[in-house]
Amino acid sequence: EPEVTQTPSHQVTQMGQEVILRCVPISNHLYFYWYRQILGQKVEFLVSFYNNEISEKSEIFDDQFSVERPDGSNFTLKIRSTKLEDSAMYFCASSGLAGVGELFFGEGSRLTVL
Amino acid sequence: GENVEQHPSTLSVQEGDSAVIKCTYSDSASNYFPWYKQELGKGPQLIIDIRSNVGEKKDQRIAVTLNKTAKHFSLHITETQPEDSAVYFCAASLTSYGKLTFGQGTILTVHP
Questions:
Q1: How far apart are CA B67 and CA A44, in angstroms?
Q2: How confident is the model over B64-86, as a mean pLDDT?
Q3: Residues 35-64 of B with CB under 8 A from A
């Protein structure tokens, strides 16, 4: 069964460092997303990406965040200068044709900022 | 923006009993309501979804009901099994491929 894969599964970084989280969405999907879940809190939408551009972003997704689909298979989330409050589980998701519905989530990348 | 509230936060049942989890949403324009199951160390997995033109949908032991007037929807699991133990999230969206707004999650524990 096709799946969304994410790397790394866990990353520990120092405050102020740049972090790149990587995702390989399901191959024929067109819509890509990043969500995050701070421990004990709701899963929160960060950004959606379609046709090589951001289609929607939340207020959390400020200038410190960026997304890229560098090569047609990977989908990355970059945090330029990490803060303590960026510590969370980051989930990548992808979705197929419009109207089909289901978002397929990866297993997540746990980011710990010290 | 949309706000989704989910109750209860924890639910403990005996194997074979039914479990009901309820969610309310604020944006009457939302028209897609999925339910996700998250097992420990894994990402959320869709278990059932419903669109606003449907009042109820069933898939084996799982059913979802939607009341658009009251802006609430519920997940019903019958004949619960220990493997149903997980965190369940409801969500709402304006479209089926857009931004999902999640509820807080319900930790369901099914005791053998």
A1: 24
A2: 96
A3: 36, 41-46, 49
